[in-house]
Known about the structure:
heterodimer; A: 177 residues; alpha+beta; Ubiquitin-like (UB roll); DNA polymerase, domain 1; five-stranded mixed β-sheet; B: 779 residues; Aldehyde Oxidoreductase, domain 4; Aldehyde Oxidoreductase, domain 3; seven-stranded mixed β-sheet; 20 helices; globular; disordered N terminus
Amino acid sequence: MDKRKVEIEINGRVHAAEIEPRLLLSDFIRYEARLTGTHVGCEHGVCGACTVQVDGLPIRSCLLFAVQADGCEVRTVEGMTAGLPYGQLSVLQQAFHEKHALQCGFCTPGFLLSLEPLLLSDVELTDDQIRSALSGNLCRCTGYQNIVAGVRLAVERIRGDRDSPDSEAATVAGEPG
Amino acid sequence: MKHPAALNGKAQGSVVGRSMRRVEDQALLTGRATFLDDIDLPDVLHAVFVRSQVAHGTIRAIDVDEATRVPGVVAVFTADDLALGDLVTPLQEDIFSPPRPLLARERVRFVGEPVAVVVAESRYAGEDAAALIEVEIEPLPVVGDIAAALDESGPSLHDQPDGSGNVVFEQQATMGDPDAAFASAAHVLERTLQHPRLTAAPMEPRGAAAYPEDGGVTLWCSTQFPHSLRRIVRELLGIEQVRVRCPDIGGGFGLKGINYPEEIVVGRLALELGRAVKWVEDRAENLLASCHAREMEVRVRAAADADGTLLALDVDAICDVGAYGTYPLGHILEVLGVFGMSPGPYRVRNYRARARSVATNKCPSGAYRGVGLPVATFVHERVMDLLAAQTGIDRAELRRRNMVRADEMPYTSITNQRYDSGDYAAALDAALELIGYDPTDNGSVERKDGRLVGLGIASYVEWTGTNSKIFRTRGMSAVNGFDGCHMELDAEGVLTIWTTLPSIGQGTTTTFAQLAADSIGVALHDVRVVQSDTAASDIDGTGTGASRSANIGAGALHLAGTELRQRLIEDAAEMLDVAPDELEVAESLIVERDMPSRAIRFAELAKTAEPERYRVSREFDPEHVLYAYATHACRVAVDPETGDVEIVDWVVAEDCGRVVNPVIVEGQTQGAVAQGVGGALYESLHYDEAGQPQTASFMDYLLPTACEAPSVRIRHLELPVPDAILGSKGMAEGGTVAAGAALANAVSDALGAECNALPLTPERLWQCRAAAASPPETS
């Protein structure tokens, strides 16, 4: 199979490689870029564990070929703490930690990348709406209850800080305040 | 360093019981954890298994020529090439244990059975080659279900010495005088209950990676049972030097408590090729060829007198265990759970039970959270509701009347289960209070939106922390029954702890540290609980599963920690020239009680001690099994037109004794309930008559999403547990034990029609309503 040259920016760093067209984006991220925080749970687009952001949109990296992401900006879980002091977590990650929203952690990166856009929106969020927003990601450990609580806490912190004029800006998604 | 004065008034046992946040979260949240497929193995080869596409047949030929010529392929192996013995689970002599070839030899017995293995430089090349391997199989008639398995005119999957066909296990017993009880009872009922075939489906599939090391092999494996894996690898590969290490594990739920042919083969491949070899299954393999569970048919008869007292129970359970047993638990455990625990938390003095496991051309069936107890609970809780309907007695009151009372503990059940402690009625009452139970509320309340409301109760008792004595009684000799802990204090004062119970997401990296802090007096930030590694010391054990961590794992840790603490105190006493009983320990500091300025840090002691002095190993094999219990109650709203079931409320009143970390314990219950809901409403594995799997992806095997999982309200009872070394019973399987029963009862209540088969899909609900509208002649 003829190989193709691609340049894919992941978390701000460009990865150039010569790859087979059939190489999945999830495999490119994990093996070419050696970022193993993105996990593969089903390879048929249902579980959402492989969710990353491509040009700002959450997508299932197991359903995209790497060549389709050529020239795109990809964001993975490793990018969420970029720019933060060592050991500090983003608002969403910190909320997950405080609310025990993860157990084995295998599905967690997929949830984080899926949820980030929700936090930045202004949409009013009931628990039902949060659950609906989570429904594209499977978790077998937590039963989702604490994930809902984690999302709610993160939303309160981000929106609360945004609304408050002289508070320190919350570090949303790893961007320095 | 903390000022010694800060220790004054610090209560003993102050770390256990707190909802501490987890130390393992940082790595998991930032994508820096190391799951099996994340391990960096230089120059690694990839193993891809070729699997049978035929459910039952004779292997005529395996053509690997084309496959070996695919660029990147290093080797292809079949059973003849590897020449390894079969995987046989050691059971009692009189129990047949179906031998399982690591790679199929002569015969295939289920779709998905490994037949050959390709080793290649990349997984893509390996899968290309695997697709080119031609396996010529002459089909044999398929034994597709329990009825076919029992049909003696059909084929037998295995050659049993006594010619028992496909019945690979049978046990019968009669206790008391059930016949007399049935003859004289005011009320008798008989039903057949059906439970579907399920699978644990952890989000991380199975995987193993091996490389030659130290004259033998090191095997990384996403396994709950590393010491068991080491034992069977040693046995089948014929080598002593085997090290099994656990990475971070993305869920297990019992599925990874089985040691698999693929894992053993990977070890062999590494030795054969002299290189690192890695195998990671995909989801199709996980759903088809790892481990299934729970497929059972149970015929139950119950007798009660006029005031609802249970007089007798008669249970006939058949479990479809698939093509082979599973190592190390075998093919008998699930059905033994029904045999032993169908009486549940109730007083039953006349009992007849028959338990059979039958082999079929399906994936082997074994452990999944609850193991047999979900079906046992389904049996006794449906009986309770059915008796309540038949006698006209309120279903909660009926349970209360029949429950073993707290003042009867310890209570030995008719099946020789020693219920050690507990107040079952208190859990029942607590759950009823939480859900707002109203005895005058007679179900099937129709809401404004046309939906029918129902309430379901499910009470259960479960064994937790099975000891070696019980495993020997069951004849399961490959399971140790005890567990171990090894700890080492280094010169910086850091305490590293290994146990034989791998962390699989249940938080033991944190809870074991909490227990260590209390047992030893070490500061929490000085403790590192690390993942299981068979080379850590000489400790042996069972592994994570069957709710062992909070009692048995904790027990081993406590024994080791107590010994370590004693040594530290002895050495400090000598150094400070005081008597040991004049000293107190907390926060990694040993202080003279009456003169707190005289103190010595753990690190100081460790710097000058002999290397072995602060290294301690202990194993723990409890004398008694501990029985946790709970009552779940749920309210549902059922759409009679669409069969949609919405869970409106779910409450749990549970007692696992002393709760080590409430948030973690509640997280386990929430997760278990969600899994149980999945198995009760959505999940079901199907095969057609040709033995072809119909549910091979998450499109068909429906795991609950956040929209299906309920919010759960939980109350802990925390009664004293006299037989527990630290006051805690095991827990975490309860949600899956109770959910099917709770939902069957709730939906039956809502519809006013009996639901005795799971899952409660819309189609099933339609069938139940139709059956209720035109009941058959027999009850």
